[in-house]
Amino acid sequence: MLLTHWLATHCPAGPHFEPMTKVIAGLAKAAVQIASHARLNGLGGHDYGQAAGGQNSDGDAQKALDVLADQLIIEALAGGGVAAYFSEEQDATILLDAEAGLVVACDPLDGSSNIDTNLSVGTIFSILPATGDLANAALQPGRNQLAAGFFIYGPQTILLLTVGKGVATFCLDQDGQFQQLSWQPQIPETTSEFAINAAYQRFWPTKVQDYIAQLLAGKDGPRTRDFNMRWCASLVADAYRILRRGGIFLYTGDSRPGYAEGRLRLIYEANPIALLVEQAGGAASNGADRILDLQPDSLHQRCALVFGSASEMAEFTKQPEHPAR
Ligand code: AFP
């Protein structure tokens, strides 16, 4: 089934039906263009991994494809249905159609430090109901999301999408069309695989230190089995793997300056990933509280993000907190 047909037959009926089908189709159109630029990076004099000269809201140097992806999405959303657009690459709200009923929050190109290493990158999106104060309409808890998903640009370009009734997946075919896959993600309840950037171990809270030490102890330790580790430094790639075969992903706060709340952003990274993960039977928290219940205070605020297989999430959550040693 083509994405357009799936949208027409699966988006919830009601006032948001028509704009939601238009918005998701618009995001897919932008994703086809982003995928093409990523795939052809280095040809025609283009180097999309190079610094674009600007900085994003957090002071991260913007890559050329960060900026291009953001512009392609804005152009696609200007087609209608969206009152306001919020982006990792934009300091302020982009007001579009004040009469429209939806707002969209995006990380236009997640994992951009991987562009010139030919690793998977992606576009993460969250669709929320527009509220009266459009400038702050993204400041809603993630449980309000009407739809969410991400495109991953890797060996395949795949869309993972939820409109609140499970997760559907679509693969970009050779004709530039998203075709539905039979895969409907259900995260395995248990796992023996974890994802964390171990380079920062000395900065982790003691709860994370103790938990990871137990996993590393393997079958000789309290978990009585060996664990494997993966870290893609691309949230969409780690999330895709976990949605496919289970696992637990951890990016919590740590003692590095500026990392008290970790690295990932609540509104346009943690919330959409958390909705997909819960819709696929997993769990997502900030280490203590459900991500989707967190009330954002500002557009670019960071939050600790732990997600994955439900039983492993319970194992991490019950790990006692200790004062810093
Ligand atoms: P970039 O977009 O700057 O590459 O950051 C990617 C990311 O936000 C997320 O996709 C990764 O999970 C995380 O950062 C990797 O962070 P570390 O570089 O600290 O491992």
Structure description:
There is one protein chain. This protein has helices at 3-10, 17-39, 64-77, 206-217, 235-245, 266-279, 310-317, and strands spanning 51-55, 61-63, 82-87, 94-95, 102-110, 121-129, 147-153, 157-162, 168-172, 178-180, 193-195, 228-229, 248-251, 283-285, 305-308. By secondary structure, the protein is of the alpha+beta class. It folds into two domains: 3-180, Fructose-1,6-Bisphosphatase, subunit A, domain 1 (Fructose-1,6-Bisphosphatase, Chain A, domain 1, 2-Layer Sandwich), CATH 3.30.540.10; 193-317, D-Maltodextrin-Binding Protein, domain 2, CATH 3.40.190. The strands form three sheets. It has an eight-stranded mixed sheet with strand order 4-3-5-6-7-8-9-10, sandwiched between helices. The longest helix is centred in the N-terminal third of the chain and has 23 residues, at 17-39. The radius of gyration is 19 Å and the shape is globular. It starts with a helix and ends in an 8-residue tail after the last helix. Bound molecules: 1,6-di-O-phosphono-alpha-D-fructofuranose.
SSE layout and pairings?
Blueprint: H1 3-10, H2 17-39, E1 51-55, E2 61-63, H3 64-77, E3 82-87, E4 94-95, E5 102-110, E6 121-129, E7 147-153, E8 157-162, E9 168-172, E10 178-180, E11 193-195, H4 206-217, E12 228-229, H5 235-245, E13 248-251, H6 266-279, E14 283-285, E15 305-308, H7 310-317
Parallel strand pairs: 3-5, 11-12, 11-13
Antiparallel strand pairs: 1-2, 3-4, 5-6, 6-7, 7-8, 8-9, 9-10, 13-15, 14-15
Helix pairs in contact: 1-2, 2-3
The chain binds 1,6-di-O-phosphono-alpha-D-fructofuranose (AFP).
The site of 1,6-di-O-phosphono-alpha-D-fructofuranose has 12 residues, from loops.
